[in-house]
């Protein structure tokens, strides 16, 4: 199924392009009367098509006026690749670290629920002084906070063939500017008992998704967010409100959150036992929350065609444990590493854009990047992960260095690595 | 519809809200001067003991939503179920997606790799991977069957749980599941689970 989806998307893009083109020309190729010499040598008047180029000149046509809602240029078609359960951000189509809201990756377990914001309620109960219910209106009255951070699905890793884009390899990460109320503010309001060590976060979708979260994270930097990139949060991101745990695996950031229950034990829900756990040597690792540092070059990448000369290598790097302090790029298959320029401001637990100038002389090589975060963790190779975790490590919390092969003819191909 | 009036009210709310944010923001900025304060913690010194937003939850409101079940059995409802009843429910309500050992539906998941552990493969199934029986009950009750989530009665959930645990050779065919017996079930995989042992820092784990 997953295989055919991108094709469908590509087809859609093609159709869009055709429509857009027609729309742009919009009858521009009007007929005009021109003089022409007939075969009998007489000058006659015939109807002829005006050259398209002339009427395509935007300085010669009044464009459409202002609209109630803006839209992308008819020439731009960034799209998510979707499967039955997720859609992936086109990382290679983005020019900075912020993801447009409609391109933010999605992952849900029973579809996107329709929730009336006027009826929405968040219940906080359990080991608290006063169990309370907050309407959306109440949440918005509290002192608010805005922060930019990434989200990433902890199953964000694909490999297998050379013709894979950054979107296909790790498109289950995106970044937004989130606005909401600190969970600590709500905890203060209900009076969390000192003995409470965990809280259950529960969604109001058809999966009634639940995760157990340490209370410490709740007091540290957890938020209940109701806005994304300046507007109300998108339905597929949890409208009207979701839990946001900066730097932690996306699955813990419960969308459409309806209930928080404080407890002295974890709840061992399906998402934290049979899913989002992974074999490490002879054990199964559970409650892996933080996303380790990772990066990927998004240009040049498959399917770009490289030209000789100066190339600005670009990409994103991030860490769930804090700031990215350095990103290094190798243009000689990992033999030597160069420090890249980071786009400021470099934010905590955020996608950070990096750039590195390189002169490609036409030789075959491999380019790759690695992120180093403020805990001095360096993004590992697949081999290092394998050595640490064993061959059964599965796909969760995988952050290996991604390499792109540069062929002599300028083709850029993903370098898949297998371990089984 | 009186929408235009609402827009006016909304703007008033936005302006009031923005002022509140500005005021609070200014306080937290002053507090942060000197040493770098945590970027996302507000200075609560100026805050009232309670903002008074929201309202106290009634026991009825809590009971209506409080459906979770912990491994120690906390949250399990009254009622019970058996393996035989569970099989009958499974064959009518679960087989379409999960298939069965007797009948392999084309294009659907087989019970062997998904629900029932298969010694020949290392697929994660209830019997060889799920650490707690409470999770099976909780998950079925909150989100199954996929096309009609939350439609099973508590007795039906106990029964389907019993059927699946029996199919995984965790409980005997004549065992009755209820709030007392379910928490006592020891799942084989429980001993394999460890809490995240990554420590941060440079080590790759």
Give the key terms.
heterodimer; A: 420 residues; alpha+beta; 8 helices; 26 strands; B: 205 residues; mainly alpha; two-stranded antiparallel ribbon; disordered N terminus
What's this entry about, in short?
The complex is a heterodimer of chains A (420) and B (205). Chain A has 420 residues and is α+β, with helices and mostly antiparallel strands.
The outline of chain B comes out as: extended
Assembly form of the protein: heterodimer
Helix run count of chain B: 8
- Average pLDDT confidence of chain A is 90
Query: What is the tally of beta strands of chain A?
Result: 26
Span from first to last CA of chain A?
Answer: 23 Å
Count of extended strands of chain B: 4
Percent of residues in helices of chain A comes to: 10-25%
**Biggest interface pair, residues each?**
A-B, 67 and 58 residues
Secondary structure elements and their pairing?
The complex is a heterodimer of chains A (about 425) and B (about 200).
Chain A: H1 4-25, E1 31-37, E2 43-49, H2 52-56, E3 81-82, E4 86-88, E5 106-107, E6 121-126, E7 132-135, H3 136-141, E8 145-152, H4 166-170, E9 173-182, H5 183-190, E10 198-203, E11 210-214, H6 215-220, E12 223-228, E13 231-232, E14 242-244, E15 257-263, H7 270-273, E16 278-280, E17 283-286, E18 294-299, E19 309-318, E20 324-330, E21 338-339, E22 341-342, E23 352-360, E24 365-373, H8 382-389, E25 403-406, E26 412-414
Parallel strand pairs in A: 6-15
Antiparallel strand pairs in A: 1-2, 3-4, 4-5, 6-7, 8-9, 9-12, 10-11, 10-15, 12-13, 12-14, 16-17, 18-19, 19-23, 20-21, 20-24, 22-23, 24-25, 25-26
Chain B: H1 3-32, E1 55-56, H2 59-65, E2 80-82, H3 83-93, H4 95-98, H5 111-114, H6 126-129, H7 133-143, H8 154-167, E3 176-178, E4 193-195
Antiparallel strand pairs in B: 2-3
Helix pairs in contact in B: 3-8, 7-8
